Amino acid sequence: MSLGRLLAACALTLALAWVPQLQAAEAFPARPVRWIVPFQPGGTTDIVARLVAQKLAERWPQPVVIENRPGANGAIGTQAGARSAPDGYTWTFGYNGNMTMNPVLIAKLPYDPNADFVHVAKIVGSAFVLVVNPSVPARSLKEFVDLAKASPGKLNAAIGGGAGQLSMALFKSKVGIDVLDVSYKGNAPSLNAVLSGEAQVMFETVAAALPHVRAGKLRALAVTTPNRSALLPDAPPIAEMVPGFDVTLWFGVAVPAGTPPALVDRINADLADIARDREVKEKFAALGLEPLGGSAAQTGTAIRAEAETWQRVAREANIQQQ
Description:
This protein is α/β, with parallel strands linked by helices. Helices cover 46% and strands 19% of the residues.
């Protein structure tokens, strides 16, 4: 066989190999999709998943069923997702915590966010907001940094989870302050600590902090994204003081490694359409969330880069795995 015929035969073989994948993607979903949310019902992750699932059910002939499997900072449910069949019918809710931060903070993590998953999409993102108890005599980010530098080790930062811990470590290293981390069992207790004055400062989601900021029970000093939040327009980005500072809380979908690429692309495209839906965007905006988008390849690259950043932050801050 000539070289030309051999190459043509190889090309035909590859093309035929894609036919079943394309047919499966076109027929998807033929049965209900299970979406594992590895956190408690009622939180932001759960709200996002249920809103997207509802809209997908309007578009698809089959429902997307939310399965909450909380525990171990998301590790239990995420492990279950990693061990599922790579057929597109089991999704895992991914966000910074279980996909880029757990590998830094948890020893012997029972899954590998990169080897065990294909990261399909980042659906929406949000800023963290740096908030202080109103008793803190600082009304701006600069005033807070100056105060912390003048009183090293005197201010307490409430830490309710890995996202807050690593975000605070990055912030402290960038602005050169010494603030004492005080750990609490979850975000709700840490927020209550700052509200009561037991701790003075923390990073919190915009959605959770907003009611307290509006009520005057917290003071918002800055946000962690490069742009201001529409819900907190008076809080400038930390990047105005520290160029390049960017901690974006993202929410997305991952599927088991080995899921056919054509099916991954199909799910990515449908999620992107949902995120652009006007009604969905309005509901997301009320939570301080904005559509992110991007291909599966772009999503995976960004997640791997973020994981490397948190590895470096943890190493420089001497944060030990638990």
